[in-house]
Design a protein that fits this description.
alpha/beta; elongated
């Protein structure tokens, strides 16, 4: 067999092996279980919102990408398609209530929908950032 053919076959096998390894270790990587994760920070929903409103850069470095446990009084529970969002509101903006929006995990939808305005709750979730009006919390659950 010619050397250039051996070289092409070797390169093809290396690419195939790299593809298999990427699939196993990157694509197929298990996701973090936010429901069982320990909170990195515990604070009130109002403290979190005010931190982002007063100094966004500092708040992003402190809270973005971390599991937070928030306490506060729920102002609204929204059902959008197959999502349930608990809202802690602290101001009224152009598009409605502004504050902290917690997208609940599916197995916590029923409990979230049973919440009434003014109910005091504790919610744990992943801080995804600030949208200039709301702090976005994802993968939220009731601890």
């Amino acid at each position: 067999m010619k050397t250039w053919l051996k070289f092409i076959i070797a390169i093809a096998l290396l690419i195939l092996a790299a593809g298999v390894l990427v699939y196993i270790f990157v694509y197929n990587k298990p996701h973090k279980d936010y429901e069982r994760a320990s909170p990195d920070v515990e604070l009130t929903a109002e403290e979190l919102y005010m931190a982002f409103k007063s100094d966004r850069e500092d708040a992003e470095s402190l809270y973005n990408g971390k599991v937070l446990q928030l306490t506060g009084e729920v102002d609204d529970v929204e059902k959008v398609d197959d999502m349930v969002i608990a809202v802690f509101a602290f101001s009224e903006g152009f598009f409605g209530l502004e504050g902290v929006r917690c997208t609940m995990l599916e197995n916590h939808h029923e409990k979230a929908l049973s919440l009434q305005t003014g109910d005091s709750v504790t919610i744990k979730g992943f801080c995804a950032g600030f949208s200039d009006s709301d702090v976005i919390m994802e993968y939220c659950s009731f601890p």
